[in-house]
Every structure is written in structure tokens, then in C-alpha cells.
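[User] Could I get a sequence and C-alpha cells?

[Assistant]
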Amino acid sequence: MHIRNVVVAIGAVASVVAGLVVVGPAPSASAAPPSSGRFTAVAPVRAWSGSVGTTTVQVPLAGRNGIPASATAVALTATVAKPTASGTLAVSSQTVQYVTAGRSVSVGTNAVLSSGRVGVRLSAGKGTVSLDLAGWYGSGGASSYTPVAPRSVLRATVTTTPRKVSVTGGGVPANATAVVLQADVSRPAGSGSARFTPAGKDVSVAAISFTAGATIANTTTVTLAGGAFQTRVSAGKAVVNADVVGYWAPGAAGSSYVPTPGVRAATAALTTTNRAVRLTGTAGVPRNATAVVANAKVNGASTSSSVQVSGSLGASTLPTQVSATGRTLANAVVLPVSASGTVNARVLAGKATLSLDVSGYFTNGVGGSGTGVDVSWPQGPACTAVPTDQSFGVVGVNGSLANTTNPCLAQQLAWAKGSAGGTAQPKAQVYSLFTNPGAAKASVWPSSNTLPGGPTVSVPTQYTNGECTAQSGAQSTWKTTTACSYVYGYTRAYEAANTRGVTDPGQYRWWLDVETGLSYVSDTAQNRAALEGMIAALRASGVTSIGLYSTTSQFATIMGTVQTTSPIRPLPSWIALGTARLDQAQAACTGKPLTAGKIAMTQYVTAYGSGKIDRDWSCS
């Protein structure tokens, strides 16, 4: 309902976080991962190379080199050669690597495309940046991702002659199209680069750039040919090590990738003892994510060693990244998360500081999106033009006004009941609009404590001695009293629970939508009386779970100061943010509630097809 939201017509689904457009009866939430995050491997290719400085260079990638115009993101390796100054490399506005003057460095990353392009810049100086493509993500992608326990597939001295490495078996199926490798080059005698390409395909693409005598690690996605890849170094020889940590295979049996803005998830001081670091439920990652993609930055090392960041399937024997005194390094990691949403991190010697910046996550679809969706009427061109990946759904019982019925109510309630679940929120919830136009402006204003065709209301005595009485003359001249405001609110909620088509209102959590886009009077005491009347009517109708939806500023404008004895005060809050991101909605859970109750949910408006949709985050 994002503060009087009307969702426009739904077009082609473009956002990777949106669900699917429903046509026909609302089904249960899809048990398949979102097709928009599927992956297609391509033959590795150097897509672009050029001089980059502190001004962002927009590099076109979609529509060429096997990347379709519809792609939403790409898997690539970015290499910086001959940097003139120390600083950082950013790709698609995310810092992906730390650069040391005069030293070449490579990093694997998943980069979001904007109009088919990625932006590339250095924070200082200039250097030659190369982008080597491994594949693309999008609705036309063929493969889904499955993490596996780290398994060594290569521990060997590699020369300039390609060395074939078979990877199938040990959890990787024969039809795997690509694998994710955690790899390193250990103390090479000279400088150069290690290259990983499909077996039989020898191209000059760098996966790891190395300097003589220095061990360097990287994570890379490599396309397979016949279940194998090959590796070689650009010059001389070096010990190259590689562990498989996951694979891509055709179909929807695995997980799909959802890119996110680069958000700092955690900064942890590491010792040689494993430390649990939480990555889900924060930084834009839902609690039901199967794996997280992050950029691991290592600095402040007390001694030269290495950092090991491991997921729920076990630790690789290879370092996530080296930890060298006086030097900051980064590496992309793809980490399956535990049931509690954590990964483990430690340094093999001394101490160091690790920062994890999330750039995406994987979801297998079984638990839906991990977020809720709230809908009302009008909701697109049809009652069923809503996402189907919701973990819970909230449906408005009213139409455009508080005294009208949502014509889509039955279909949308069925949709909400088919939610995937998996959060602390009930799968299906409802909300009703608060309104108080006052006696002079209301279409019908109460003149007694008895509702037309309904019950007699017991009004608290502090409200005009508990009596709503008839007034003489034209209604436009009537005085608004707190007792009649209470009865007016009671009437609106009684109708919502008993006449709008909600069967057994007590089975739902009810939210009362309080916002300045609806009618209210300037006297906040009158508005509080009307809201208390709504609460009383819902409780009399068997509702036991009630909450408040608004923003803190709008609620204060309408309700003023809520007394400690008011039934409004202990109710939980559902905080509206407007256009925002999931990580911002998660952070808002620790904000200011509307009253004394805890924040139970937050709402953010995000893209859905050619329009927008309201997504909701459960704060517990």
C-alpha cells in the first residue's frame, strides 16, 4: 500500500528481485528459483581493455561476445596492469579490488549491467584495466548454481603448456556447464598471470595476476568443456592450486543469483580461532539465502599469513586471500551459509581485519524470496497481477476508500494463503484503512452508540462520558465529539471485519493503515478516539493480533501523543520507507517505532516489471 500506492500496469519482468506475473487464478508461491538469476557460461574472452583513471569509463558488454542485450549481470575477471598509484578498483560502482602502485592485480566479480554497460574507475592514478568475461545472468540463462564442499582438483606446477583438469565426480555432475574455483598461485619464481579456460580453448585471459615471490589468491568462474578446464601461466612456471566450491548445471534444481548493491555486511577482527560472521538478515540478504557472494577485504595484518573464510560446507585448504603486513587485498567469495546465516573466518597466523561487502546472494526458491508483498486494489490490470515469490502476503480489505470493499479481496487472500512462509510473519495478513473525516465532512456520521444494523458500542467514559448523541440541524453544522469519533472508527473496522468478505477475521493479523493521504481531523484526540474504536471493533470480532502501519512523522501528525493507558500504545509497528532497498528495510528494524510496541515489519517500494510493488521485511 506504499502510502496510497497505485501499482501501474505490469509489463515484462526486468528486475531480478521481482517474481512472476500471474495470469489466471493465484497459485501457491513458486518452488523454483527466479529465472532472472540463471547463468549461461560463455567461451572466455577479453571483452575490453583500456586506460582507466579516476573518471568512470562506461564499458558496453551486452549485445556482444555472447552476452545478450537482455542480460542483467555478468561474471568477469577484472585486471589492473601498471597502476600509477595505490587505491581501489570499482566495477559497477562497487569496490572490488585494492591496487598497489606498479603491481598488477586481478579479481573475479559479478557485475550488474546498467543499460548493458559496466562502469569502471580507479580511485587514484591510472592503469590499464582488462575485463575478461566468463558468462552472464538473466531470464534467458540456462543453468542454476549448486555449492559443494571444497574439493581439490589441482595441486601442480604449471607451465606455459596448457594442463587439462577434469572436475566431474565428487559432487560435480557430468552436465555441469561451469565451476567456481577458489585458486591461488604459490610463491612463483617470476611475474605473470594464471589462465583458466575450457579444455581445448587457449585464450589470453587472466584469472590471477601474480608477482614473483608473492602468493596470491582469487575466485573465478570457468566454463567447462567435456567436464574439464585447462590452465597455464603466461610465462615461466608456477605452482597453481585450485578447489572446486560450486558448479552451474542446466535446469532449476539449484539456486539463482540475485545481485545487490555493494553493502558492508561485517567487519571482524580475526585471530587464529574461527569466528562466526552473520551474512543473512542484513546487507540486503534474506534469511533464506542458500549462499552469499561477497568481496573479502583483508588489511591490518600483524604478520604475513593468509585469511580463510569458509561456508557451511567446509573450508578450503587454500586461502581466501593472503594477509600481508602493510598491504590491503581483496577477493570475491561465494559462500554457502549455515542455517543460522553465518560463515566462519580466521587468520592462519597473527591477527588481521576482515571486511565483507555483499554484492549478491543465491536463492533456491523453496522458501520464496524471503520477503513479503502487500497488495490492495487497484493492483495492475487484473486482481492477479502480483508476484508469486512472496514468503508472506498482506491484503487490503478496502477499496480506494475506507467505506468500500477491495473487489480483488477473495483472489488476493487466496494468493496470500499460498505464500511460501519461512518467516516470523503469518503467511496471510490483512489491513484496513484508518479514516476520520469529522462530523461535518463525513458522508454518514454516527448519532448514537448503536451501529446501523449492528451492535451497540461501549464507549470509554473519557470520551464525552461514553455517549455519542444525536445533534440537531444540518450535519454540516454538527460538532465532532470524541465519543462519536470512537463509534465512527468502530463502524469502519466492524465493516472491514464483518461485511467486506473476510471469513473468520480472527485467523489473520490485522494492520491499521494510518496515513496523511486519508481523511483525518486536526484534533489528534479525535483521531486517537477513532483508532481506539477500530481496535475495539476488531477485538470484538475475534481478532487477537493487531498492528499499526505508517511512518513516524505521519503517525505523529495524525495521532499526536499516545497516552500510556491507550490500547494503541503497545501495538507493533509496520514502518513504511517508500522507495528503498532491502538492506535499508532491514536496517530500519532498529529505528523508531510508531508507539511503544516493537517494529515487526518494514516496507520498501521496489521495481516490478514496468511499475512498482511493495515488498516487506520481517524484523524477526
About this structure: The helical segments are 409-417, 482-498, 524-540, 552-559, 582-587. The longest helix spans residues 482-498. Confidence is low (pLDDT under 50) at residues 4-31.
